[in-house]
Design a protein that fits this description.
Elements: H1 2-32, E1 37-38, E2 43-45, E3 48-53, E4 58-59, E5 62-63, E6 88-89, E7 91-94, E8 99-113, E9 116-126, E10 132-137, E11 148-150, E12 167-177, E13 199-209, E14 212-222, E15 236-240, E16 252-256, E17 259-265
Parallel strand pairs: 1-14
Antiparallel strand pairs: 2-3, 3-17, 4-8, 5-6, 7-8, 7-11, 8-9, 9-10, 12-13, 13-14, 15-16, 16-17
Length: 271
Amino acid sequence: MKKIKKYKKTILIVILAPFVMLFINRIIALYYDQTYFDIDKGIESGKYEMKKIKISGNLNYCGSDDHLIPKYDADGILELIDSNNAYQGHVYLDTIHLNFIIDIKEHISGSEINDDLVQSDNYVVIDKKGQIIQRIVIDSLTYNLKNCLLLENKIDKVQYTSMPPVITMKHFLKKSFTPCFIPKMTLGISNVNGICYTWSGTAYWELIAKNEKFKFTFEDDLQDLFFYDWFFVSKLGYYEIPKKYEDLFDISFFVKKNDLYIIKRKGPYKD
């Protein structure tokens, strides 16, 4: 009889534990809701603000050697690029015109070739106020980025398993559960290598920029059952101005998926 009661108690604990953890998860979210706000509504911290730059299309994650013009030595032999120094990012700094360039890929509505949507590559030029001032259709024969510097992402995707100090996920409010963490083989599906995300919900982030703490939220998916494994869908990027150009720009950029945000001083921008 005692064994039966013990088993019942164990089963009850197993059943109730997930609900208790979810309840605690929501209570913690209520606490963070006091100081963390939707990133798309604008975030302020100290003398700075973070605002969204509205750009249509998908942001390309470019390599530092993607647009380099081939260089040849005195004997006409192509000089090899040191791939060990290569890195990736979303934002180019135009060192001549002192603007910023974003490489985007935009779908052309209503156009289809072989059932694939036609895509147009464009450069979007942004000034230091965060205003879009030009859109350039990419033509490799007439336009290049030889005078541009690709800013290095301070939140590289390979660092997601051990978050860099520039950004931290403080909490994740679990809203919708997707039971696709179960191996697909057990479901009778041959594709066992597919990746899906367990929870959809609200991510609470703290970004350190301009010596300020920007606290914001956005909807995301997290591959995790009850604990944070840092496997989330959104590709994040944070870009600071190189020291050589710091006196010219008091701004930085943040990227979430295909959304671009500028961090700058509050109020009218002073040239």
